[in-house]
Amino acid sequence: xxxxxxxxxxxxxxxxxxxxxxDRTNLTGFDLxxxxxxxxxxxxxxxxxxxxxxxxxxxxxxxxxxxIHKLLxxxxxYFNTVKGSLEDLKSLLSSLxxxxxxxxxxxxERFKMVIEQYWLLRGYNLNNLEHQGTIVYHLPSFxxxxxxxxxxxxxxxxxxxxxxxxxxxxxxxxxxxxxxxxSLPLIRGFxxxxxxxxxxxxxxxxxxxxLRSPHGxxxxxxxxxxxxxxxxxxxxxxFMAQKIVASGSEVLATVVFENEGSxxxxxxLGFEAINKLYWAxxx
Length: 283
Description:
By secondary structure, the chain is of the alpha+beta class. The protein contains 10 helices and 12 strands. The longest helix is centred in the last third of the chain and has 15 residues, at 232-246.
């Protein structure tokens, strides 16, 4: 870590989280920090670690932070600021270990320039940088109760909707588009820390599921190919929306730009596009 970078002790993470409490639709704010406050690294991953750093001891005023979740051979990186400058965020990114691959997770459009400057600082050709984009969808809390009216519940009444247990993490991982060597422990973390939903047949076989990511957005929504076009994905989203609103959070989802089918499904359920977030892999 660079000389200007200081670590924020775990006992003060709630103070940093509360700086972001005014906007619960900010996916690198309150709910993300709440996730890692509650997150417990798996005993099977002895080298896993989570650290939060800031630019200086005055972080309680400006809210600059970078969170590094080290898992196996990758650093998962999250960052944001309340009142700090782009230069502050560039300093935080410059403190990352260049010998370790990292995935920069969920940054806003206004921060793309910071990522590009960091990429150039690492000596890479800007033409090789890919900002992997997603649309952020929001379901206002007053709309959650109207989800039922948007679904043919009579047609779906022979399915069982409930919590998805962590014993099914391997199944979720097998069907994840972004499956990797690190993905199974990531998914276990999602399921251990946040609510997860499953849609089951009468014998208890999972047919569809939906998780909640560290950012607080719906994630890993999947329906087995043999049961698609029956509304099971919408049923899982409805269950998740009810549980998330009951916890005091906002219902959010991220959908990659190319996935028009999921975009239409969320819009049909009353979700509204409110932002864009990006991911970048730094080798």
